[in-house]
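User: Hi! I'm working on a homework problem where we have to compare a predicted structure to a textbook description. Could you give me the structure for the chain below?
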Amino acid sequence: MSPTFRVAAVTSLAPILWGTTYLVTTELIPDGGPLQAATVRALPAGLALLALTRTLPRGAWWWKSAVLGFLNIGAFFALLFVAAYRLPGGVAATLGAVHPLMVAVLAIVVLREVTRHRAIASAIVGLSGVAMLVLTPNAALDVWGATAALLGGASTALGVILTKKWGRPTGLLNFTAWQLVGGGLFLLIPMLMVEGVPSHLSATSAVGYAWLAFPGTAVAYAAWFYGIFRLPAPRVSILAFLAPLVATVLGWAVLGESLTPLQLVGAAVVVCSVWYGQKSSP
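Assistant: Happy to help. Predicted structure tokens:
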């Protein structure tokens, strides 16, 4: 295995863990509100990493961390849950999957990366695979939900590009902690104003929240940023297609959901697009 593929394998841990979010949310976490779920995912994970690393931003990195935390965590999580509440899951996932295409374009415009046609082709093929994997014939389109899904994809795309452009002045875990805390604080006040704190927390809910906060967010984002600093931006973003694939597989394996022939084709297309995207030049 080449060094590039080893980096891609580590980075792929992020979308694989993100793919567990649907199962954990539906089976372990009580119905509360989108802002509660988003805040609990980000803020405890960030505070735990910050307590571990014990280093605060300095100088310009106060505002840079705030911007990256807003784009990569706060705005993305909020828009993600708005889309999930207003759209069928398949529509939300498909619209959010435009993220790799946005990254490919922004990499050319902002980073001046030479993005080959194969990288863009991988993003288009992967998007079509996600559509086959998660869309249903009776999927409805809500304008506000669709807008939220597209803005969520754009937010993380810009976050990836600025993360790549600005670099990091500190260790990976510390850098991850700054963004998670910044994004979590952005979500905290709206959560308290709109939804309040959970009235009770069962053992099952605690396990679900702990999974989302630590493996699903702290570990996942550390792996994601690890890849951003070592791979061309389009290659990293193509790995995001693994998240809906993992969610679909878990739905079949754990929840007993059926898989149609079209979904099986879509799964194969997603796998091929990810593989092809890692082979292509930047």
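For your comparison, note the following. The chain has one domain: 3-279. The first helix runs from residue 3 to 11. Good luck with the assignment!
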